[in-house]
Design brief:
Blueprint lengths: L3 E5 L3 E4 L4 H12 L4 E4 L10 H14 L7 E7 L6 H9 L3 E6 L19 H10 L3 E3 L13 H16 L5 E3 L5 H9 L4 E5 L8 H5 L16 H11 L6 E3 L8 H4 L14 H11 L6 H13 L7 E5 L8 E4 L2 E4 L10 E2 L3
Parallel strand pairs: 2-3, 3-4, 4-5, 5-6, 6-7, 7-8, 8-9
Antiparallel strand pairs: 1-10, 10-13, 11-12
The chain binds N-carbamoyl-L-aspartate and zinc ion (ZN) (2 copies).
One zinc ion (ZN) binds next to loops.
Family: Belongs to the metallo-dependent hydrolases superfamily. DHOase family. Class II DHOase subfamily.
EC number: 3.5.2.3
Keywords: Hydrolase, Metal-binding, Pyrimidine biosynthesis, Zinc
Length: 346
């Protein structure tokens, strides 16, 4: 087994960059290793229109340190008032690469999300017509549904009916966390993709809850039983075109994580490639890392693969424990074991 691995430069197909001082601090953490990212629109207020996405993209590019290259792939936050023609124009300009569906109340800053799916039908039909993917946070929000069942129930009661009603709609199941998610993704045709986060390959719900609650392991969808983590590892390392990396790196300051009602989100932008190389090596699948991080995503999004490379080497990396931001400190995801793969600086 060789001690270095060179892959096509990776992309992150699900990323939270936030805005303002937080954006400035976290953007280099992604741009250091990743060429592009699908940028989530759940700002306050959300990025709903093409004009808002264009302005957000300008703020991202203005925050990029000199000498770094990075391409933000913009998304629009789907609301019941979204205008199909605005979506089509934003797509036609090449700026917007996906529309994001949050069920109302499902996660951080999702209050403007969808409650009545009939109201967004014209937008979904337009997207199917123009081939623009819908990225879905797949959890139901009904209070009577157990939080550990919310993804599986969403698949049966919302996602499958939605795909049957609009069969040409291209859909990405974002941050799948269950074996039901893996099975459903596999059951689809080429209109269906699924992102998997780094942390859901590492955590099960015991890591979150046994021996004291770990606020930095709390994210949505919440980590599930071990059997689900194993199903995700098998899917991610399979090389199957359906599955690609979406880190869902979601920075919140430490005070916002470590409190009586802590925010959901794991910040993995900094060390994701090291974490993934170790996971893939453990699964005997280092040869599939490139498919997961650098090939399957562009293929689904109908974009070219990156032309430059990233080299990983078998030596303990040295990442900061926290990122200092203008809003406060953000803890970098700590898997609880030493990392064994580093990234060779470009
Ligand atoms: N994943 C999370 O736990 N949090 C994300 C929102 C999301 O992706 O659902 C965030 O924006 O903080
Ligand atoms: Zn989400
Ligand atoms: Zn997310």
């Amino acid at each position: 087994m060789s001690d270095t691995l060179t892959i096509i430069r990776p992309d992150d197909w699900h990323l939270h960059l936030r805005d303002g001082a937080m954006l400035t601090a976290v953007l280099p953490e992604t741009a250091r290793h990743f060429a592009r990212a699908i940028v989530m629109p759940n700002l306050v207020p959300p990025v709903v229109t093409g004009a808002q996405a264009a302005a957000y993209k300008e703020r991202i590019m203005a925050a990029l340190p000199e000498g770094m290259t990075f391409e933000p792939l913009m998304t629009l936050y789907l609301t019941e008032d979204t205008d199909p023609d605005d979506v089509a124009a934003a797509h036609a300009s090449g700026m917007v690469k996906a529309v994001k569906l949050y069920p109302a109340g499902a996660t951080t800053n999702s209050a403007s999300g969808v409650t009545n799916f009939d109201k967004v039908r014209p937008v979904l039909e337009k997207m199917a017509e123009i081939g623009l993917p819908l990225c879905v946070h797949g959890e139901v929000t009904a209070p009577e549904i157990d939080i550990f069942d919310r993804e599986a129930v969403f698949i049966d009661t919302v996602l499958d009916p939605l795909r049957r009603a609009t069969p040409d709609l291209r859909v990405v199941m974002e941050h799948i966390t269950t074996k039901q998610g893996v099975e459903y993704a596999r059951s689809g045709d080429e209109t269906l993709g699924a992102t998997i986060t780094t942390h859901h390959l590492i955590l099960n719900r015991n890591h979150l809850l046994v021996g004291g609650i770990k606020p930095h392991y709390y994210c949505l969808p919440v980590a599930k039983r071990e059997e689900h983590r194993l199903a995700l590892r098998a899917a991610a390392t399979s090389g199957e075109a359906r599955f690609f990396l979406g880190t869902d790196s979601a920075p919140h300051t430490d005070p916002n994580k470590e409190q009586a009602c802590g925010c959901a989100g794991c910040f993995t932008a900094t060390n994701t490639m090291s974490l993934l190389a170790q996971v893939f090596e453990e699964e005997g699948a280092l040869a599939q890392l490139e498919a997961f991080t650098s090939k399957n995503g562009p293929a689904f999004y109908r974009l070219p693969e990156n032309t430059d490379t990233l080299t990983l080497t078998k030596s303990a990396p040295n990442y900061p424990k926290k990122i200092i931001t203008g809003e406060g400190e953000v803890t970098v995801f700590d898997p609880g074991y030493p990392l064994t793969w580093g990234v060779v600086p470009a």
